[in-house]
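Case study.
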Amino acid sequence: MKVKQTTLFSMLILLSITACHKAANNTTTNTANTITPTSSQVIADFCTHVAAPDYTDMYNNAITFQNAEATFYVNPNDNDLNTMRASWKAMRAAYESAEGFLIGPISTQDLDPDIDTWPVEQNELDSILNGSTPLDVTYVSNLQSSLKGFHPVEYLIFGTTAAATAASFTVTTTLPTGPRKKEYLHALTANMVSIVSQIKDSYVVGSSNDYATVLNTAGANSIYPTPKAALLDLVVAMSGICEEVGGSASDGKINSVYTTQDVTLQESFFSDNSWNDFTNNIAGIKNVYMATYKSSANGHSMHDLVSAKNISLDNTIQSKLNAAINAFSNAHLPFGQSVVSERTQVQNIMNAIRDLQDVLDDGTPNNKHDLADFMNLYVAD
Amino acid sequence: MVIVNSKYFYVLAVVLFFSTSCRKAKDFPESEQDPRLSGGSQTTFNNGSGAFDQSFFGLNAHDQLIHDIGDTKFSSAFVTAPAHVNPGIGPLFNNISCGSCHPSQGSGSPPQAGQNAGLESFFLLLSNGGVDARGAPADVPGFGNQLQNNSSYGKQKEGDYNVTYTNQTFTYPDGTTAILRAPTYNIVNTYLPFPANTKVSPRMAPSVFGLGLLENIGDATIIAMSTQAQTDTNMIAGLPNYVWDVVKNKLAVGRFGHKCERPTIEQQVAEALQQDIGITNKLFPNENSYGQPQYYDDGLSPEINDSTLNALVYYMRTIAVPARRNVTDATVLRGEQLFKQAKCAGCHRQTIVTDVNITLPQVSNQTIHPYTDLLLHDLGPGLADGRAVYNASGQDWRTCPLWGIGLTQIVTGQTTFLHDGRATTLEQAILWHGGQANYSKVFFTHLPKNDRDAVIAFLNSL
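After joint prediction, the assembly is written out as follows.
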């Protein structure tokens, strides 16, 4: 069909005019709608259904650890050593899932560095053990963060190339001597429980570092000008742990070991607990999204917010969450071996985490593809 | 000669008119710029806990990888050599990682009052009051130019320090009062007798975003701001610092540090590694204890390889600037108006255009709002440290960039301001100003309370 020249020019003019306009928002919106639940309810239930029970779980396991360590301190034995190892892993599980929402005092009050600094200062630790300085709680508390917290404890109870045994805590003929290791572990444990207690308190209303109240009063405090700002902060934290673990072609925790095949670069090297760390990191994101922790009932959640407006996005987010979590089950070897012998599975895990990150916050504002954009668009307050 | 059909020419002209009307002007007048874009094209709209740790936009995959490696190293603890991961700390140091001093890439805080400092985001610079051959502050024998209050096991730290505060009451003309805390620093437990005449300058770690944009403000632009201010009554004349560039081996315009002590990000990072963490590197190959009894040559220098140093530098160069918030709020706009009337903007320059940079387009020709002139200003005896640094006298300080300052609390969990963190609110920080900033402070103090609050609201929008 031949188009008349005048029509063509008219079209050109129209094109020129319309090209100036921003693309119309093709997302159906209803400004009269109010979101059910409210953003404040989602924040409140994040505190009570996710953060508080998660950190309480960690604290309870720290107490279990401390009780076992107390009897081990008097009489080193394999049973208590095994209890310590199990409760250490349980503490780590709770802590790593809480890294799905790394905001507030955990990151602003040096609690994360104090409890989770890596790598361990092995040379210094060995020097201290081989020395004669009294190893009380005050001494250990004043040490640098690479000499206290989870990983020095891990170093002592799991050992390095030779697995730690209860008997190694009684040997006096070789350095470091067992009694020095035992003293250090005793002081380390007290320090660790103290830090874990402070972390737990950050979601205890009325405590000195109460962040639950900060979140619940979003819109009426100087930290969060609106509840939306608090929700977005959580979304960014959820996305951030994806980056840290899955590392989109970067220096992520998996990728750095995968690329170099150097197992000493893994964070939980002594216990070879890295797969559990990573799985719990991603499970923690799901906890926040669904407003639940372990078997507790779901609270008002981000999932509720999203599904009320965009079921497709909600399905996508849940699908990516499950895909990332399930991807870990395809790696059957310890992490240090997987990066050598199960490279396809490891690559698939990283891909799944990056896919998840893309639907949480793909880094492009307002393209309406991810959870952050959804919050920006639909959360009114 | 080409004859153009007049009918078609008319239509074509209409088309061209509408087409060209879509184009953005090459240079926007300031009134048409988006005031939220503090970092120009490298502005992030993340205004949460991670606001100070967002990558530049538009980095290619390789550059993004280098940025990410630098980010990881920034956060990682360094340990004593030999070690497989991050070796090189000590034997003397102030802290164990970059991130320990710059939490979440934000500013630090002073030590708890009355207690000897431990691992802090804070340290004391020293000098004997003289200058060395290059014009830098001369070292204190046995202590160098920075007090390292931590050491590796079995090594002697240089000493401890603590801070105590004396409260002063400031009374506004309208009768309301504010409490200002004046710090006193005590150096104790030194391993050698501490010279009585030592000049001591307390320093709190600053935030580290936007440094690439500040680095790309041209020398000529900085100097022009200095000369312009000598004739423009709305501006306040500051002086550029000229400091030793260890790469170029000559004096260069200083940009970084509370007294513009360092000319480049590379030198800033390298010197912080050496002085703060004890990690030798290609720019500073000697331990910070060189020449002192604790010095031990382990033969491993440089303790950080060039690639890692380069990644750290690139990371520091490519962190985006958080956008302003509430820019149309009436109180904020009122506060901005008063900020200008008080001549705060005479030093805290609102708008600067960076130089052209073909190697890093993200920082090239950007209109930014850093609220600094990168110049030295006399802020009076109240804030003086008495320690001269090249052109900076004991009363001179670099105009602190104010961009992002309103996000300090959400990012770092605390609010302490000025070079030593003595101010716990923005109001206190203003009231500590003196010297060349005295006019601004007096203007502020004579405002009614609601207008003072408007100025604070404006600052919190940055």
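Observations recorded in class. Chain A touches chain B through 51 residues (CB under 8 Å). The domain at 42-201 of chain A is CATH 1.20.1420.20 (A middle domain of Talin 1). We will return to this complex in the next lecture.
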